[in-house]
Queue: 3 jobs
Job 1
Amino acid sequence: MKFMKLGSNPDTFQDDGNEVSIVATELVSDVTVRIGTTKFYLHKFPLLSKCARFQKMIPTTGDENIEIHIHDIPGGAKAFEICAKFCYGMIVTLNAYNVIAARCAAEYLEMHETVDKGNLIYKIDVFLGSSIFRSWKDSIIVLGTTKAHLPWSEDLKLVSHCIDSIASKASSDTSKVEWSYSYNRKKLPTENGLDLEWNGVKKQQFVPHDWWVEDLTDLDIDSYKQVITAIKTKGMVRKDVIGEAIKAYTYKKLPSLSKVSMVHGDAKVRAMLVTITCLLPSEKGSVSCSFLLKLLKATNLLKCGELCRKELMKRIGRQLDEASVSDLLIPTVDGEATVYDIDMILSIVEEFVRQDNKNAQKHNGGEVDGHVQAPSASMIKVAKVVDGYLAEVAKDPNTPILKFIHLAETMSVNSRPVHDGLYRAIDMYLKEHPSLGKSDKKRLCSLMDCKKLSPDACAHAVQNERLPLRTVVQVLYHEQTRASAAVTIRADSICVGSYESSRSGATTNTEDEWDGVMAVEDLSLSKTTTKLDDADKNHCNGKISTNGKAKGGTTPKKAALGKMTMPGKGQSGERSSSDSSDSAILQKLELPKRTPSRSTKPAAA
């Protein structure tokens, strides 16, 4: 820390312990200065020789003792004592902690050059310009002390000088950073100050781009806002570094935010959250989506205002593809029936879809050769996260079905290449809402496309008693269609590859792939598929024997189709009341009876 000593005479100020300061001298005190509850017994001549204000207050004639009351001097009694000692020529030490108070008090007492050459104001200004404002840490300390001396520090431009000094250093090229700074986060070995040598030559140590971030976390929110604004104005620091600085400051001031716990606070905390939101760089990716969602959760709980909330939701919507399901679990405020704020997430997802569609139209014109453009990678990621979020809110018995459906429908049809996640969410909702009506069940299940379910999901769905019968029929139909097509392809592959099979004695890659995809537990071929398999044998012109073996090859594994237990007359529920058209379709599919040895798979969790 920089410091400056003024004066040469010994310090003879004596404090009697009762807030009384007396100058130990042979001369009797002829002026008493009262500042608050503290009294200073001084002499006229030293004060009049340096302070123009005392020249106006103290008469030069007369020997009587004069008492002066001063109530509004910046810095109070301590700052006045520094000025008084300077008047007596006593040794005074100035540093980053007391220099602002002394400068403001000297201005109050009018200790200018016009009164005496080399007066206190001049000496302090030289000290500030040559030492304090050239020091990184001293500038931060000084800025922190200016708030206690407003409006004097503001009017004297001390605040602006501090801010400019800090912002200029933070914006400097890292190769020119030669001063000390605090940096306790994980760093590279060279950033830790290790003396790494290679072939006896000391390597150059590198300064991280965010070297200044931690030192600024000690500032109050008003000073911090001014510094970050000045850094932004200079335009020399990357936006992601500024975002990292704001994130570090927020976690320092609101540690509960980083722990994703309930954030409590008063008007001061609310004002801080609003300021932090306004300081965030507008560029996408300057801060993580997870941090934005934590801010949104805090502002929502503390009711920081609609404008702040909407700004955060807009920013989150632009980079929602970075979010996880846990990030989106924002609890509702008091008085809401649901556990999580579904409406807020719905608004965020709608903002993302709007931005994604806008970008797609900008780059691709929306359609290519009359076909709808394929969904972006970001859209597919968000759809997967939304399905995971739906599965979480489905566990809440108070989640309205209309909100569930609306959120699911917000994502476009082609944004889900696989509907397993959506099926899991629907199954969870049906499990937690057993009293759901038949029409609501059908509407809920119509959200998913049975053709986009994986074989495992299909195997689960055909034995899921919670699903409407019509949905199960659709799953079975598409599963059998897919199995039939796959069997045909397998048979053709065996015929074409019989020559190579006879040479190598190994099965084809096509058969291996088929076994990996279609061998699903608790499923068996229907009669329709068996007939199709016989036709495939004839198609191969006798190259496959009646026992299903390929000449010179191995036995192909049979693909399995879904089995479903049909409810009997005594069963109640959705399926017992299904219409005759569903039953007719089931008869056409020739569903096999459930074998007692097979067990039904548990419902999706």
Job 2
Amino acid sequence: MWIIVAIICAALATFLYKYVFRTSGPNPFDIDTRAPLKPLVTQKKEKNKVLKQGFLASKVPEKLDAIVIGSGIGGLGVAVLLAKVGKRVLVLEQHDRAGGCCHTFTEKGFEFDVGIHYIGDLLEHKPFRCMLDQLTNGQLQWEPLDNPFDQVVLGPPGNRRTYPIYSGRDRFPDELKKFFPGEEAAIDEYMRLVKKAGHNIWFLGLLKLIPVPLAKFLVYTGLANRLSFFFRMASRSVTEVVNELTKNNDLRAIFSYIFGTYGNMPKDASFSMHSLMVCHYLTGAWYPIGGASEIAYHMIPIVEKAGGAVLVRAPVNRILFNDNKEAIGVSVIKGQEEIHVHAPMVISNAGIFNTYQQLLPKELQAMPAIQKQLGMMKNGAGGLSIFLGLTGTKEDLGLKANNYWIFTEHNMDELVETYLKGNREESAKSVPVLFVASPSAKDPTWEERSPGKCTLSLVSFANYEWFGEWKDDKVTNRGTDYKELKQIFCDSILEVVMSVFPKITRDKVEFIEAGTPITNTHYIGAPKGEIYGADHGTARFSAECNATVRPQTPLKNLYLTGQDVFVCGFAGALAGALTCGSVILNRNLHLDAIALAKKTKRVDTKKLK
């Protein structure tokens, strides 16, 4: 009996080793491609030459190796990885500028970011930082936020409690203990669970890289849960875990506050997903110098250098297949015309729902394997954004390089659930959770680029159904009722902002606009206005779901990348790109990035001596 068990274990270990450490394909991280830093380009006309290259059939490169649908970080990330090994890639973007949630827009002289508010885990020579350096040839620079990087505000005016959230593996819990004397054991246990679950994320990636039969074996024998603390904790909600740790309601709220970065209220959120976000910021938080558009601006030239292109105003209306159900290209709508573009491989960064429900022929949508994947996922929460343009410097307005999370009280589950189930006009008057960030205060180049002006990006959640009746109207003319509903949101949220930031007054407000879930559908192609892709509840993080939804689709030569392949956010979407690239290139790029990070650290250390 034990001999059989030993043989099975040895065979399993051999298979895992083979697929974890496989190195047969080309390596995009083979050499350090960081180049001397070039001056920051601030002229919009110059940047737009890169970011706003419109689609024409004549601009499509010949002999393509791959087509990528969508130019968010998941799409651009995999395109650059392929370009670095000589592949000719065409990236197609339906919006009028590249970048997806990394794009920026300008109104009345104010530049706003739409999705990049703060990124963690960017210490020098760490794998994530190394990977971003290589994907931008060292041209993308990062500015650290203040410490504390987050301020959590609980309660109504008159009874507000503000808790600073510090980075630092020791400082984060140590500062919490100062505010919550007597809760040291609860804080220590929370940190132990968070670190243990978050650091086990590698097993999620493993399930997506190994062959399907082996992944299923690990899932259905229960070995995936036994071997991975991440999967053992994935089925437990944040509320369930933190309520076992402490009875202090404010501390429960502080343990849970960061749920806004992935979109599920604590009672529905997977503790493992939550742990990833807490760990992500333990070493600090950063913002891209020059603004979020710098990300795509420095990635696109790498795609172009390899003979590829990134073209905008290129809505893909369907993926093309041959009689053998193999992806062979895409169809792009140009005016009233359909233009077919062919390539031996199609990679979709459009999200699992858009890809399977909108871009596949009906007969392929109906395939049991496609329906199984769709049945494991659901749409995430709709996002609401308010863009505020202010007159004055950051000093005048009391703005710093940090973020505020403002909650009307500590009972987050109850507050959010009541809000989302409420009448839209009434809910708009009392938004229970609000994220407040100032890109202008975080970017050291801002004052030179936009003197005397500041911006705030305000983010919350809203039901897609509240706005659904206007979804088919022209985006710039959705009628008086729609504008009035947006105004209710803007007025109530502005009141909250002014109560927390007393130097911001109505006379300082030069521009205010709301982006609703249907705005997100129009500009970033989110089918239900979600900003974090597919839902990040407990079901999303079962071992079975992660072994099933992977870069390879049930259709040959069609791959998925981005948030829905891995997890949400900038880092999650990039991890999705890295996983997709690993499958396509037949090597573990996650390990390649780690190896290059170690190598560059040694080289840079020698240079300093």
Job 3
Amino acid sequence: MASLKTPTLKTPSFALSSKPRLPSAFSAAFPNTARFSPSHPQRRRFLIVTASSSSLSNKPTVLVAEKLGEAGLTLLKEFANVDCSYNLSPEELCTKISLCDALIVRSGTKVNREVFESSGGRLKVVGRAGVGIDNVDLSAATEHGCLVVNAPTANTVAAAEHGIALLAAMARNVAQADASVKAGKWQRNKYVGVSLVGKTLAVLGFGKVGSEVARRAKGLGMHVIAHDPYAPADRARAIGVELVSFDEAIATADFISLHMPLTPATNKMLNDETFAKMKKGVRIVNVARGGVIDEEALVRALDAGTVAQAALDVFSEEPPKQDSKLVQHERVTVTPHLGASTMEAQEGVAIEIAEAVVGALKGELAATAVNAPMVPAEVLTELKPYVELAEKLGRLAVQLVAGGSGVKTVKVSYASSRAPDDLDTRLLRAMITKGIIEPISSVFVNLVNADYTAKQRGLRITEERILLDGSPESPLESIQVQIANVESKFASAMSESGEIKVEGRVKDGIPHLTKVGSFEVDVSLEGSIILCRQVDQPGMIGTVGSILGEENVNVSFMSVGRVAPRKHAVMAIGVDDQPSKETLKRIGEVPAIEEFVFLKL
């Protein structure tokens, strides 16, 4: 077993503000073992950017396929030949793309695999003028060595203003009263509204737009609370907002404004179960993503009076069907996804995406890149299993955090026999950041934007190198992730010094979880994991295994770590499928089990 030497501390100098430059032309290559795709987490391919023999001595060509603000076009024309061709058919786009070095689109143009294949390798950058990238095939872009950038910040104020506009319009029945008067009616008594002053607004998702909505609502005299388990508490306090749990937010709010991304964790977050927990007569505004609301459940809540009114700018299907019960509901105000539709926001988006595209064509690394980690092929091949371990440890650690204070401080410890200069941890740090942030965000984290993304969210990641005796053939012995100043959903994950702590190592090429808090375990990080703290007694493995077997949940791995015989133990169970709520409830009801948590990888 390797022995411990004096710890050597070293933090890589990959600065948050630095802009490493690529050669003026670059290409992509992929080793057979490399796997990465932000849009398909189960298949990860890593883009390796290397110098190309060609040069960009001639002006590059940028195809602008949808209308872009003049300010953005001016920036582009200073550097490139600009072809503004709007309303192209898919066939026309595929024909043109082989003559273009960059493509700029909004949400109406589908940039699919056929587009990248038709480019013949010439297309180097796709710029999405806006936030969402649902219309760009990220996997195909990465495979074809094409960088994808977006413009996530320019429309923040516009979206916040639209949220406030819908809030006020809903409270005072503006849309309904307008339609009534235009129909020749004068129904003053029917459209009596409610005041905003003194009411409680719950902002769900306290990012850029959510915090701007909170500022404006405070100016209207509202009491503002927010739920976002990963928002810094000091940032909320600075504008007079209290961070609370999700259940407290929806139970006490008079108005709810949604500003979270659409992720597996937030999909249909507002549903029959959550509507039942809300204050009767609550009013809901959504300028985020349509999928965060179960629309059929919202109709039921409106009909039952649980929800008094709703104002919606986004829908799960856009445009919604003409006979949609939700759209046609008399107590629902709707707009056709206008959140970013102001003249100022459109110009801002145009400038932001033009700068990102020009920078990428010059060889600069853009903080708004949503793919393209840069790593040498030989380093990638060696670090591949440790990259997977790093991301999964990040995902496990963040799922153990109980909401409230927010994740602000993360410490990563690398135990290795290699000298610090022989172990580049930038990719590992990026993957830990990816694991912590991506489950609760629409941001795609990679080596390009990891430090920037962490900084934007107030997340400070420090690194420690622990130098071991032994052979330096293997790059790492173990990786440990600690999250400080938070509460845990699973108390046994807390170390003696009060941090959530998980540790893992690679065995036979497969990532394993080897420590939770102070408990030693050994479970393969595949599928998902159930952690149980229990009284150490005979039959526990069989009891829990039987419950899972009865529910047809396959157990792939099981390990028990204990402090001493017949005392306390932590059982780690690897499962291939997600157990039902009823199954997890049955596990929690086993008398000897003191706490448990289900963690999805």
